[in-house]
């Protein structure tokens, strides 16, 4: 069994989908959470100057979605055909488009720019969530082909972050997404992790 | 043999990596290029209101990188182990991080915001290109394990776009990247495509 060590900050953010996939797959890992004060002294050790980084047997793996996909492949969460894998990837990239819009809005300080980024979120959020909701309905309660995949874990983690950043439950008007997230959060390993994870703002 | 129809604008942009992978794989496809004037009448037909979209036997496939990965898997350009596939994915996501920084800068109209985005590009561009250059050197002339993958095709297409948007040859100070791009552009199918493709600004 390889050893796993995940380095990130003490927030959900880009690392939470990795944490969810590791927990769901029953993989033990060191969940290293740096403070923002500690970060400068670690930055240069990271392959791309960024976190999250997952070390597998000491070998650093940057790029969060690529890491998720690797773990998902190794743990039967990445689809069982090329077409299923494609659908999962397309859902994840769509969720990530939304994440970028929300993050940019959240971190922007300059009022006029922030207002423009807010307008972008206000357009994108309902448009994409409706598409995702329709897909879960059509696909039988999960994003792809009626069975759990890393897209479902990714969305659950992402939507918790979106709700935190936007200070509202983003799933509230999307019954299929709400049911999906509840289902994922009730998976025994995920449930146990959620109950014990550090409380963070987002 | 399925039929393929790719819809995008008459630019390289997000579609060119898909076009490169299709051409390299010897797959015939309809390369539909909409004018920006035509776009509003097609937008609502697209699954996510965006292009590129690749129709395979009439079924629409949105999300450019997910489409690239699907085609790459089907045509032996996606690595021959989970670890190789991961490395390819991580390179592609790193290139895409840079694409986003450059695109945001290019399309921003407001001078103060544009200046900030320019500073971001000025930091990211040399940092990422140096990392990518080092990787190609270490990995034997390609991004992963001394053999052609969709990461190499993706970078070649992306760096042409970066050079067009920034009005400079972005590879000029990175000898390994320059050699890689020349090698890809000399592949017979890619060469034939480049010689006959529509001339576009970027």
Automatic annotation (TrEMBL), chains A, B:
GO biological process: glutathione metabolic process
Keywords in alphabetical order: Transferase
GST C-terminal domain segment(s): 81-202
Reactions listed under catalytic activity: RX + glutathione = an S-substituted glutathione + a halide anion + H(+)
GO molecular-function term, one example from the UniProt record: glutathione peroxidase activity
Pfam families, alphabetized: GST_C_3, GST_N
Family annotation (PANTHER family): GLUTATHIONE S-TRANSFERASE, HEMATOPOIETIC PROSTAGLANDIN D SYNTHASE
Oligomer and partners: Homodimer.
Family the entry assigns: Belongs to the GST superfamily. Sigma family.
Name this protein carries in UniProt: glutathione transferase
Protein source organism: Tetragonisca angustula
């Amino acid at each position: 069994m390889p050893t796993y060590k995940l380095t990130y900050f003490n927030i959900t953010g880009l690392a939470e989908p990795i944490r969810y996939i590791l927990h769901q797959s029953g993989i033990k890992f060191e969940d290293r959470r740096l403070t923002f004060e500690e970060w400068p002294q670690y930055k240069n050790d990271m392959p791309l100057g960024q976190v999250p980084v997952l070390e597998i047997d000491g070998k650093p793996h940057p790029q969060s979605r690529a890491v998720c996909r690797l773990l998902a492949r190794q743990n039967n969460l990445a689809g069982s055909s090329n077409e299923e894998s494609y659908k999962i990837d397309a859902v994840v990239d769509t969720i990530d488009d939304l994440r970028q819009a929300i993050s940019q809005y959240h971190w922007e300080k300059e009022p006029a720019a922030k207002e423009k980024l807010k307008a972008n979120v206000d357009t994108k959020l309902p448009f994409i969530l409706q598409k995702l909701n329709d897909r879960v309905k059509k696909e039988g309660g999960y994003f792809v082909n009626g069975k759990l995949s890393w897209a479902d874990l990714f969305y659950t983690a992402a939507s918790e972050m979106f709700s935190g950043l936007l200070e509202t439950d983003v799933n509230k008007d999307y019954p299929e997404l709400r049911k999906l997230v509840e289902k994922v959060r009730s998976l025994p390993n995920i449930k146990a992790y959620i109950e014990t994870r550090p409380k963070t703002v987002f």
